[in-house]
Amino acid sequence: MKKSSLLKNTSILMVATIVSRVIGLLYRSPLGAAIGTEGLGYYGTASNVYVILLLISSYSIPMAVSKIVSERLALKQYENAQRVFHGALIYAAIVGGLAALAAFFGGKYLLAYNQQNALPALQVLAPTIFLSAILGVLRGYFQAHNTMVPTSISQILEQIANAIVSIAAGYLLISTFATDSTSRAIYGSVGGTMGTGAGVLVGLLFMIFVYSVNRKGIHKKIRKDRYHAQESYSSILKTLFFMVTPVIFTTFIYNANAYVDNYIYSSLMGWHGVDSGVINEAYGEFSNYYVTLINVPLALASASASAMMPEVSGEFATGNYREANSRILKTIRLTMFVSIPAAVGLGVLSFPITGVLFPGSTELSAWLLLGGAGSVVFSALSTITNSALQSIGQQKIALRNAAISLALNVAVVSAILFVSEKPGIFAVLIANIAFSVSMCFLNNLSIRKYLRFRNEFRNTYLKPLAAAAGMGVVTWIIYYGLYLLTRKPVICLIVAIAVAVPLYLILYVMITHTSEEEMRRFPMGSKIVKVLKILRIY
């Protein structure tokens, strides 16, 4: 395995993630215009329940399949790796099918009493859960082979199909069936969820095509396999169950806070007598504007974790713990290199970013982004450390940490909203921050215990933070200085971002003394070096 493969795979996934997230950002504004803020609230509510069922059935399947298959590939057990793939497909079909049935027939019991208008959108999402489970197995299988290209392309295609169908279906359903504001919101949310299903279907068809193209090469390796201790499907399914189930529960708890927060927020705000339309509008801005923006840098952390897992699992399986630690630290540094300036930039430019990207949003979205931008760093780090624990077989520890953090999350949002309805959606924001900080702290303690991992704070966190802080000050001055002169937020934002990116790179190199060779190892490092040479930094 080449040492550069981790950086290469991380770079590929990061680029694909940036492209897909940019597409996701761009279509949110026309989607909001099409279905309205209340419609976005129903869409967000249905999506939260969908995500919970997806977490239980298939969300962590790519990571689990990647780990199990990569371990067998590292030991050159090609036939057993293929049998694991087939067993994973059976597992995914069963759990995905059950979760889809639960969404369609039991959705009303999963929604808060004052959120039943989101039920049609949830029922439309039911088949998507089954398709996502199968898609997850295929993505994890190719990630285990140290190729992130199929996953990356499928993510981009999925997001493109999602954007097109969401907006088109929303407009079409509203214009055809809507008779008042409530029905407009309901049919609009249904259109939005139809886009999610269309995106997953396109991604699945592409992955099936990729597998069919590579099928001959895969079977050629299997025929040359000299390891004859063939695993039975019963043992594979048992391994999958005991391996995947803790991962699923960990990922479920790790991501369940969105559903739990929405449920508690809607219920307690309704208990205080707040109108359901007001509740939905606030949650619509939180889930579709704030969360969408925050998830851009967090998606990059997820891409890093996905690229890291098969490599750390392979090193751990062969007893090379020192190299496993090295790859974890390398992944954390890459993630912080992106996450820290992203958090600073989102906070400094929160008002112009939300105003330009989401013209239909109110100042609420900007205040949420300003208050929650810092959580990007903690959430990104917890994502990497969570993946590291799963890579070394400590799923139960990751599960315990997630459960403790979720309990803290529930306690915070419940306590705030039980006392008063005035904090509103900001109670959810505060609970989210508490969750991410708790996960980050507990996971770091666990990795230190089981891998004797030592975090390197000065170069990994403090120096990038210093560079990002300098960038933030200059960016704020440039944007608001230009705005006073031109009153054109779009132009001012473009100029500010255009200055911020190279400025951060310059400050980063000057403060960390990163060499040209080291910078080339970063995602898109060769292009960054070219820019810095033009600027005479190298």
Key structural traits:
single chain, 538 residues, mainly alpha, 19 helices, globular, transmembrane helix, Polysaccharide biosynthesis protein, Poly_Biosynth_Transport
Rounded average pLDDT: 84
Classify the helix fraction into a percent range: over 70%
**Content of β-strand:** under 5%
Classification by helices and strands: mainly alpha
Give the topology, please.
Blueprint: H1 5-59, H2 61-74, H3 78-110, H4 119-144, H5 149-177, H6 181-223, H7 233-255, H8 257-271, H9 276-317, H10 321-348, H11 350-357, H12 363-372, H13 375-391, H14 395-419, H15 425-451, H16 457-486, H17 489-512, H18 516-520, H19 525-534
Helix pairs in contact: 1-3, 1-4, 1-5, 1-6, 1-7, 1-9, 2-3, 2-4, 2-7, 2-9, 3-4, 3-7, 4-6, 5-6, 7-14, 8-9, 8-14, 8-15, 9-10, 9-12, 9-13, 10-13, 10-16, 11-12, 13-15, 14-15, 16-17
How is this structure best described in words?
Helix content is 86%, strand content 0%. By secondary structure, it is an all-alpha fold. The longest helix has 55 residues, at 5-59. The two termini are 31 Å apart.
Produce a short descriptive summary.
The chain is 86% helix and 0% strand.
